[in-house]
Design brief:
4 copies of one chain form a homotetramer. By secondary structure, the first copy, chain A, is of the alpha/beta class. The first copy, chain A, has 16 helices and 12 strands.
Chain lengths: ~425, ~425, ~425, ~425
């Protein structure tokens, strides 16, 4: 990278996570010469954006850093000449997420933000918007790297890579959280632990784990089966059956509970929806409280309470990636990237989540070859759903949308698939112009 | 083929289907010089075997054919020097099948003879026995072709091809039944209809249909969606949603209802189990009646009542295959055969069900290449289950059995998978020495 | 096929082969209701075209057939509403072929019409013209089948399939000639012999041969090694080393001599070029004599002398294909078709030459899977050359042309590759507008 | 890695290169706790081994290092409990290499130590010996890493991985030499240059080059075409045609001259063989001089003259690999490793040379996906040759040996292939017991 100063554009900058990102930038000033951060949001998020602008300006000032903070509704200005574009927006806001969670459980189907019908609805809303953003990047910052955090990150990244020329990497905090939790279990520093991660976004397995070159996979599986902490604070921590982990022979991610432990997870969701509210409804409260804190003109740092919000390590995951690219680190990151033969039975253009080396020249996944049948069936099933969902979103095709939901392993029956699809299309009508 | 006379060995010869097979042989005497049919069965089936022996001898005599009918419990004698070995046995008899149907529905899971946990239990019981038979064939009739009708035919054929040197073809009456039903729908002679069939056994789609070179796929889908007959008499005829067929763009087989229309099929199964008995329990009655008829010393032909039994076209499907091999017909048949690149994302050794050319030199599938995502997810999911189930059966591995059931798309949850597995292992204890 | 009458358009109809094609049509009037044959050619071939028109009209009349013979320079009129379009033209005529043969041998490299630098030059001249023809077919006869005989048939067919929507099949008389010669060797009727043919055009092997279901591959190899006739009358019959055939384990086609027996073939070519003239120069004489015969107003049948011309079985090969499509025969033909997984290590869109089933719905290759390393290296090398040559021809790219020739296994050195390329471009200047 | 001290076993320890390896170990004492180096050789090399033992003991002593130097003819003692086993032996010594160089040029074919028929002969001699060594490692040091330098390194490593359980990595100094030479061309420190290396051993291309994240591939190709130094001191530096480099679009390795510039390289070889002696014959002199120096009891360091010998960077390449494994560096090295989908059209078990990440858990190649046709043809052709050569060596099969040589792109004709093969088998009779 030749530039001596870095401009970051953050789409959806009014997010409550933003202070964590700024904190991460401030921690890395010696290695990342960030001189401009441009937060952009839409009209509906204007108030939050202004609160974020104030807080992050105070943070920068307190740190004595030479970073210009900009906040605007002008996406094109934010993108122009950016070195990195980060996306963390949510079409329809938390209310749309609450719908994504509530609609499926009406039909006795998992209602979750990123997997199952909920993730599907989110994909339909998000993909057209992100492709629009990419057009701006192609025009205004063709050399920029786009780091996509927007969920469902795998689907969205695949859409970007299939339909645009933008250099993009999909990013998720699940793999880094697994790294941290397993390191804690094994009582070793995180950098001593190596994980071979392969799968799809929110469907990633650590196929093997090593500490100091010793294969500790069986030990980790035993600890997970014994009930050691292995969840993230937005997923209900249903315990894992030790026999199942043993049979699987790979370390599932927390989201795998939705695929393997359907009964318990659905029961818990229905109970939550009835009692305390769905996860989105809980987050609405947290968010309101956070923004109340952020308003405080005395506050000039990320408040502790943000950690309860759920996006642990997002800031580190993304800024370590910026570091790897900018400083040509050639370090291993778990990211979402086009398959290109990494998993031999999947198409080249399918986006997978896997361990990859990142340097100034981009991303190269570590080759995997054949996967065990315990893994390959589920990956293919979910990838087929994803391909159909992307095409449905881009083409506004009812047929492909119906087939996508019918192919989703969390939707057990086509009659329910159709009822859920019709409900989603009705409820999200305003956010789905392609389906009008 | 150099031989001028043909010996057929039929393992499980005491089956109620046998008269249909003999009728088929008698119809083809001008093209197939069968001179010996050796029916073999086990001690428990001795009485039925003797009834079959009597009836088929009378049939041969009436036809004035020069065929020696043998019936014995001596499998090795039956196999020795056979030109074709046909398998149609059922380990554990109809009672085991009734268990296969009843156990899963206790856990709100599809209970079916060949798919889901029922088919899995049948595979565990059957595979070790069939591999044993293959050892005899390798020794006593190494040039024989084995035509395997034994369900689950895809799984069993894959086991044979992976673990033995026997030349085998898996066979099912579903594709030929689809050919007949669609031809009837289109009001054309069956030979004018061409179907491009690809999938797995009991999970096969007709991807395209032509009459006289015209693509009639959409028309067929419309007729099936309009409720024209498209079921077989052992599968409940739940109507297909026309929108779904349209979205799928391929003609599903009758068994696909268990995968796509889970709710309705399960509801019907539970009702039947409560009221009239499961399918196996109904068949027990039919069988008793059939054998009562067969005993009749006056009877010298296949009685009409056999057609209600469910195995339509089995005799034609298998004897047409014998004809294609013996007479080097190079005709297209839908059979179960090792993939070898036919579907490019599946392993070479995976057995698939597809259109293939059959001649005296054996079988060659018609290449397919990439499948649409609407198909590929389900195929991979079921094939992964099948691979695990085969290994579980051969190795007696609890882990692989657990993982197999957990990977089966009809089993929605690992907790239920485990409960069902334990129930299956307990109930089938006597037939599963590998798991002792 | 719904049409009750067939129109054939023959591009390059002024060829000396045309009477054989007409003879073939006349032999098949009971199964192919041909009512129109439209021969089209270019200005330079006008005289020959008129001679052909006269002779073929007399042939039709003598046979009492109801076929309208048309001959014109109006390609669009010929193509409009045709059921089959057959191409058999030669850009630059026999003089261009003579150049193709003479240029390489100046550099001690095989000079041959369809392989090596000669075939490359022919591809550069032919591909732009054939893509132009395809545009007419797309517009004027979108349902027509195009049967491409134009060499290099594999390359040309791949170009058609990559760059147009035309339904096309590439066709060559080599496989059918192998079938005839091997049947003669084995003293059996051709229809009793089954060959498993796989490879590329003019680089096709019969991997196995069966007579009556018995594998006779070793026996055929022995006979070929013992010197039994296994050549075609345009290829020098250099004897095969029996040890090599044994090591190869597959039956090479006559053209394989150019790849395996380079030294002897090159020596013979140089001698011929010095003494009797290259193959093209010999053919020029034969052609002149043939057209002298054709002029004879008394002649109303294909003269015997045509057989020496070299294209044995072309008429049968193509009309049997027309029959298979029109009458939905579902018979096996060896044709050039997109790979689609047939050979698993080649790209889906690579055109291969292989055994395939042909019916009214089109063509489906017989799956092959993995090839032995004795075969796979050469196939990949030649296919890489072909891909580069096609792109060079379409794009007029010097770089790709240079890389294509450098990748051709008959060109041993890049310095010679460049010299030959420059010579080809200079000599063919008038026929290569893309390279102007 | 748990061990706190490292034992290195060096098979072929009497090599003149050994002092460089010891120098490398002494430079890395702070990161690699080597406490024992055991050099082993065969009876014929005893004198050289003793000279090496003396010199390296003096080197260790001078450095004040705590390393036990052992030298013996007892291979099993050397291997027992080794952490790393390094192989650098030469079956038949330099005389065998001289034969490898002289035999092919008798037939106007490239005579080279590692490619073409010379490399083939070396593979036949070496593979049985290395598989024998692997049996000892499996028994006596099952956790050891084997670093194989023995040429032809790709072939030999593939044999090890196919036929043994030993953890092995094949290693070559070509990629590191390319890194050094290109960095010098670009006037940047080597660590600033990133190369994407993919191919086979001695047939590896740098597909892209970056300095500081800028793609400089075209610039490097231009410099190489302009005649900047890009050779190694055992390969004749025939200049590259700039147009060819441009067409190729990838940076060839020095050995590619044997494949692309056959005429010039062969001419130079014939001239050398006639005048100064083949490369082996020159090396014999250098070796004699080196050992004369090594004998000197005053010498306690690697003499400068060793650098002329030809194995530049071997010591660094291998010890950096030891470091990456022992210290879990997760750094990128270009090594020989099983493909496992890295290049999607090659078999999983084919050993390729490519950029890979190396850590304490082993090696993981960086995924590549599809290669351009300019590359893929040659790779497949050479890999097919390699597969056949390995099987020939292991099975002692004349047929496979004949087919291997016939498939080698440097052998243009099967008649010459056979003559060369027979010459090789005769000349190497004593070293090829499998072919006796």
């Amino acid at each position: 990278m030749m530039t001596k100063s870095l401009k970051l554009a953050i789409i959806g900058g009014g997010s409550s996570y933003t202070p964590e990102l700024v904190e991460g930038v401030l921690k890395r000033l010696d290695i990342l010469p960030v001189t401009e951060m441009h937060f952009v949001d839409i009209e509906a998020g204007k108030e939050k954006l202004e609160i974020i602008e104030g807080l992050t300006r105070r943070m920068v000032e307190k740190a004595g850093a030479n970073i210009e903070i900009k906040a605007s509704l002008d996406r094109r200005a934010a993108i122009a000449n950016a070195d990195f574009v980060m996306t963390q927006f949510r079409v329809g806001g938390l209310q749309a997420r609450a719908n994504d969670e509530r609609i499926p459980i009406k039909y006795d189907v998992i209602g979750q933000e990123t997997t199952g019908p909920g993730g599907f609805a989110k994909a339909l809303r998000t993909i057209p918007v992100i492709l629009d953003i990419c057009k701006d990047i192609e025009e205004l910052a063709p050399n920029a790297w786009m780091l996509n955090f927007t969920n469902p990150a795998g689907l969205v990244t695949e859409a970007i890579q299939k339909y645009t020329q933008v250099k993009s990497i999909g990013l998720c905090n699940v793999p880094v959280s697994m790294q941290m939790m397993i390191a804690e279990m094994m009582a070793c520093p995180p950098e001593k632990l190596s994980l071979e991660c392969i799968g799809l976004n929110h469907l990633v397995w650590a196929h093997r784990a090593w500490v100091d070159g010793q294969d500790v996979t069986a030990e980790v599986l035993k600890k997970v089966g014994d009930g050691q902490n292995f969840s993230m604070n937005n997923i209900f921590e249903e315990p894992w059956d030790p026999d199942f982990l043993n049979a699987l022979g790979a370390i599932p991610c927390p989201y795998h509970r939705y695929f393997y432990q359907v009964d318990a997870m659905l029961a818990e969701e229905k109970e939550s929806a009835r009692d305390g509210g769905t996860r989105a409804e809980q987050v609405m409260k947290t968010e309101a409280e956070l923004f109340e804190l952020y308003r405080d003109e005395e506050l000039a740092e990320k408040p502790k309470q943000l950690e309860m919000r759920g996006g642990a390590y997002y800031s580190d995951a993304s800024l370590n990636l910026v570091d790897a690219i900018y400083n040509d680190r050639k370090t291993i990151h778990v990211i979402n990237v086009a398959n290109n033969g990494t998993i031999s039975s999947l198409p080249d253009e399918a986006v997978i989540e896997c361990s990859a080396v990142v340097g100034s020249w981009g991303v190269r996944p570590l080759a995997v070859g054949k996967l065990s049948p315990a893994i390959t069936g589920l990956i293919h099933q979910v990838k087929a759903y994803e391909q159909l969902a992307i095409e449905a979103a881009v083409e506004g095709s009812y047929n492909k949308a119906f087939m996508a939901l019918s192919s989703n392993p969390l939707v057990p029956d086509i009659t329910r698939a159709k009822a859920i699809l019709d409900d989603i299309l009705r409820t999200n009508h305003d956010y789905l112009p392609n389906f009008a």
